[in-house]
Write a structure and sequence with these properties.
The structure is a homodimer of 677-residue chains. Chain A has 677 residues and is an alpha/beta fold. Chain A is built from 25 helices and 19 strands. In chain A, strand 10 (201-202) and strand 11 (205-206) form a beta hairpin.
């Protein structure tokens, strides 16, 4: 019994110290284990890095990039800008050792061991990818006093929980050029993600050059596509960062672009098609009864597959509502002849034929979870996007797939384009308390963040991906018990601005949009407003108003706003604190914010209005007036019934969306009113 | 006599109205002629654009880009996102007509005629390039009321003064990836520039893939180079914007990178070379006496030349001090044998051989003005970089070259890397009052802005190129009499922030550097400081201190500061106004600024210091104290002798550089002191 108590004590101590460490180190994803030794490794001009390992391409690149970032962050003029050769006489101050080069397969070992003391840093890994993961941890550890930058003395052992930690970017609905992809790959590597899923085709565009079927990029891309050389460049760039690249060719639905180029492959006889300009689920679908369709896909995949060395190949397979199939007599006839009762059966027939084509090309088929039909071979990988919210059992299709014997990855809960809080995504635990056998557990490879691009352009996409994706990266890398939301948010604040270092534009581009909105006038009035507004969530942005097309303006106020609006989070915390213990300190936090809002309409009014800003006038005015009212109330001023009535009416107005944003502090304003009155 | 008076009157009237028009329209470069008609063309969702002309690639691209920018700027959801087909029944609201596709040669016609009235816009040009120049003018005309965006009714006839309006970017001293080049090409097109001069090789790196001599990019680029596919992509991208691309391979000096790969081509027997990490003029030089050198250059140019369709090819030829030639006996012997008295003669021998190689490849040789030696064939183009400041006659080598019969372009006066005021560059008139024959005048093709990259990285390069280059673009496009500095500065303010629209990062990246400096604390204290500081000018940045290497940090306070510091310009104007007429209004402009500075040290002190910020402490403190003193003085407070003494001593301190910046308001502070005391 004493022994049990001692164990419990140790566990508690460990949790407690872990928790303390999270206050000190802004690491994300949080490592498996970390021990402190109270030493400091000072960054000065004599710092050197050596590499001991074969095939040094990845680690050389990692070290060069490490040295540039270290120098740019610390301002230290480091003498040696590249790794130094191994030498018997002189030891480098940072020594990297690894055994072999990773193959970029799901069996790769990404673990590493890091030891920092006052005169030496050692980084040991089994693979080069493990080594570069460790370099990212080193950079996250960097800290400073007034007079110097240093790495704190720690020992870290680290390894990922899941082998598949991905980000999908949809480049069809809006095209995203090479530089957008590269900077996002850099950001992924900075939080140890390892799969880039490239959604290359959809109704709104076919984004890759085909030499076999050139009409695809010529007629169905508006000249916005990647050349094959660019694809190779990205695959190589990702490989150096230890990131696998999985292409997706979405078939048989989401096929408007393909059919714009080759209408004869469609399910609607005699139809012609045009690149889709709207967002939604559309009817154009490949005809699975035509042999030409398989010839086309086999030729296309045979051409494209070698560009992507990864053994997985995503064929989409989602959201086919089968309207054109139902309307086509020949297809109905085919179903009867082949004993295919439903459209689902027909799609399985199609998928199985695809699976065979891909097998010849040495590729494993990945598809969205609609492909999980009874006859689907177990070699397929099920990409789970539907879950409990879609009316499925606990764990959704992820757990179902694992139990049925499929390898599977999770995106349900990681749909960042829904513009929901990071907290929700962070709390999406893939397995939870579901009981699984070891085999079943091992079939759950990991997950992918999905960035569907209906409402994002190269100007805004970074702000929609980051920083929330960093928290999901932690969910997929770190141990299951790393779940403290407040500590995550505190670390995320640091990780967030550090993303600027690798080129992510999420913070800087807000000013670009606000300057454009205001014709370069003083934007402070708009900035304060944007810090309490969030873009409408879950695809409600264009409800009732003008429907967005791919070429609609995405430089509106809503595009400058972001999820988890800064000042809204601060206000929520302040109001919660105050209602829990209504002391002066907590009140003062509230008053600071209320004062800023109460003054803000004056700043807003100073801006010469344009048609883009005018719709915000009422929002700005009502916010200021409500804040004034709450200020008076907090200062115990006597307020008339009419004041209260007009406050309540303003609050009702403020609950409505304005210009595709919602004011996310309204509920807390009401809560504060109740607490103060 | 009456007639002469009438003419004078008309001229005056024209100047006056021209001057008034500059208050209304923020056009840059200013067009040749502009007439108003008081109508308005409203931008609404029904706007359409048609194109009547052959080979529509350029204009189609121009129209698509025009529609995106129009929509993003106005917020209008334009129904048709692309040019509409010509139709007999329905006329588009914006009609573009041109005769032929430009060949991208110096004889191309870039003129256009623009007519805007309330229901129609017509844009007529001889070439497609003229048409896209006109589209940029249209976008610059866009303006708005509270309720709508519109194009004002005007007729504009426009054509350039010079046929060669270039920007050179040095990608050797710091590499600048494809996206940096593309956004700068877009920005160039937005101010009607038409030549991109790509300085591809220098001591610090060989930046282009060579299949014939792969060691060049493999050993002499740190893996930072353009593939040939990327070069083709850029050349095509530029062509669509009506921009010619001229490559530069700098020989026989500036050759350290080439010799790192192929030391046997050097002038120092048995030497080996390493990529240069510092800035400066270095000794490694090709050996012009070796036949192998010409074989190498002929093979290399034969491989590279076809990537660049332009008929001009730049061979550098500058800054060869000939030290390795002097030290080499074999070279001395060769000079004697070939009757080459000086190293200049030897270099001419080299240049003439190059000229012949290039002729075979159908290329005209361009070189920096050192190549202008007596025997140099008149087919060469002289790139003038030395002028009166370098001890030459009025007009420098530009006028000399034109008089000697060479075609010539000007860069003297356009060295923007010297970090001097836009005013100086704007006032660089290429021809001035020098008398030239028509032939001589025609041989002056235009000029080029030069962005040498010793001190710029992809993070900062845009802020060093823009907005000053827009003013130089006007110097080269607009008529000679467009010289009003105040009106240029007023228009430049608008053009400056509009550059964000095409992706230029000069404004947004300042915050990135300041957030990095402050570890993401409130940067307002640093921002105010950065608006009165400028980076040290004319290559003095690293004097006395740590010498910058290519991989030194360029994320320091100096990198966040820029030429023509905003608040310094405001202060200068305010002080000038006040000393000229010391009234309360003028005083109040001064006081606003002084108050901000006097308070700023408090904001600065709130930032937790890092080694990067600490050196600014004294600057910040002395600025605040001096501002406080001047405030008191302006409020007629009694000040002691000691106060005055310590103010004067502070001013002396503030005259010194701090952390590679200078406080550029010191002289105006002194001037104000004299006016107030």
């Amino acid at each position: 019994m004493t022994r049990l108590l001692a164990i419990l004590y140790l566990i508690t101590l460990n949790c407690f110290s872990q928790s303390n460490l999270m206050e000190t180190y802004n690491l994300m994803p949080w490592p498996k284990s970390i021990q402190e030794n109270n030493q400091r490794f000072i960054i000065d001009e004599n710092l050197t890095v050596s590499i001991d390992g074969k095939n040094q391409k990845r680690v050389q690149h990692g070290v060069t990039s490490f040295l540039r970032r270290l120098s740019n962050r610390s301002g230290v003029f480091i003498n040696e800008g590249f790794a130094v050769p191994l030498s018997n006489n002189q030891q480098a101050s940072i020594q990297i050792t690894y055994k072999k080069s990773a193959e970029l397969i799901i069996q790769d070992d990404e673990s590493y061991q890091l030891d920092i003391n006052s005169n030496k840093v050692t980084l040991v890994a089994n693979t080069d990818v493990g080594a570069i993961r460790g370099l990212e941890t080193l950079l996250q550890l960097l800290t400073n006093t007034n007079s110097e930058y240093y790495l704190p003395g720690v020992s870290i052992s680290d390894a990922p929980r899941f082998v598949w930690r991905g980000l999908m970017i949809d480049v069809s609905r809006h095209f995203h050029p090479i530089d957008v992809i590269k900077r996002n790959l850099d950001a992924m590597a900075s939080v140890k993600m390892n799969v880039f899923h490239w959604h290359l085709t959809d109704d709104q565009g076919f984004r890759i050059e085909s030499k076999t079927y050139p009409k695809l990029h010529e007629l169905a891309s508006d000249r916005l596509y990647y050349t094959q050389e660019q694809i190779k460049d990205i695959v190589e760039y990702a490989s150096i960062l230890g990131i696998r690249v999985i292409p997706e060719f979405d078939v048989p639905g989401h096929a408007t672009a393909i059919l714009t180029a080759y209408p004869e492959l469609g399910s609607k006889p005699g139809a012609t098609y045009k690149i889709e300009r709207y967002a939604g689920v559309f009817d154009p679908t490949l005809d699975p009864t035509k042999e030409d369709v398989y010839v086309f896909l086999e030729n296309l995949f045979t051409e494209i597959a070698p560009l992507f060395p990864d053994s997985y190949f995503h064929i989409g397979g989602d959201e086919n509502e089968g309207k054109h199939w139902d309307a086509n007599e020949h297809i109905q006839q085919f179903k009867k002849e082949h004993n295919l009762a439903t459209n689902h059966d027909l799609q399985t027939y199609f998928n199985i034929r695809l699976e065979k084509i891909l097998k010849k090309l040495d590729k494993k088929l990945v598809g969205w979870d609609e492909i999980m039909t009874p006859n689907m071979p177990k070699t397929a990988i099920i990409h789970s996007w539907r879950g409990e919210h879609e009316g499925l059992a606990k764990g959704g299709t992820l757990i179902e797939a694992a139990k049925k014997g499929y390898n599977t990855i999770l995106s349900n809960g990681f749909y960042i384009d829904r513009m929901e809080s990071v907290v929700k995504h962070y709390q999406t635990e893939p397995i939870g308390d579901v009981q699984l056998t070891e085999d079943e557990r091992n079939r759950i490879l990991g997950g992918e963040v999905t960035m569907w691009s209906e409402l994002v352009t190269p100007l805004t996409i970074d702000s929609r991906i980051w920083p929330r994706t960093a928290a999901i990266a932690e969910r997929l890398w770190s141990q299951k018990d790393i779940t403290d939301v407040d500590k995550m948010l505190k670390r995320l604040e640091v990780i967030n601005y550090r993303l600027e270092e690798v080129g992510i534009t999420h913070i800087r581009n807000k000013g670009v949009i606000l300057r454009n909105l205001s014709n370069n006038q003083d934007i402070s009035g708009l900035e304060i407003l944007s810090n309490v507004c969030e873009p409408l969530k879950i695809y409600s942005r264009n409800e009732g108003g003008t429907e967005y097309k791919t070429y609609s303006p995405f430089t509106l106020f809503a595009d400058a706003c972001n999820v988890d609006a800064n000042d809204a989070l601060k206000f929520k915390k302040a109001v919660t604190n105050y209602t829990e213990s209504p002391n002066e300190a907590h009140k003062s936090d509230i008053i600071t914010l209320l004062e800023a809002w109460s003054k803000n309409h004056k700043a807003f009014q100073k801006i010469d209005k344009s048609p883009k800003i005018a719709p915000l006038e009422s929002l700005s005015f009502n916010l200021s007036e409500s804040a004034k009212f709450l200020l008076k109330l907090s200062q115990k001023e006597k307020l008339s019934k009419n004041d209260i009535k007009s406050f309540k009416s303003r609050i009702e107005t403020l609950k409505q969306p304005f210009a595709d944003v919602e004011l996310v502090i309204v509920n807390d304003m009401e809560k504060l009113f109740e607490a103060l009155k």
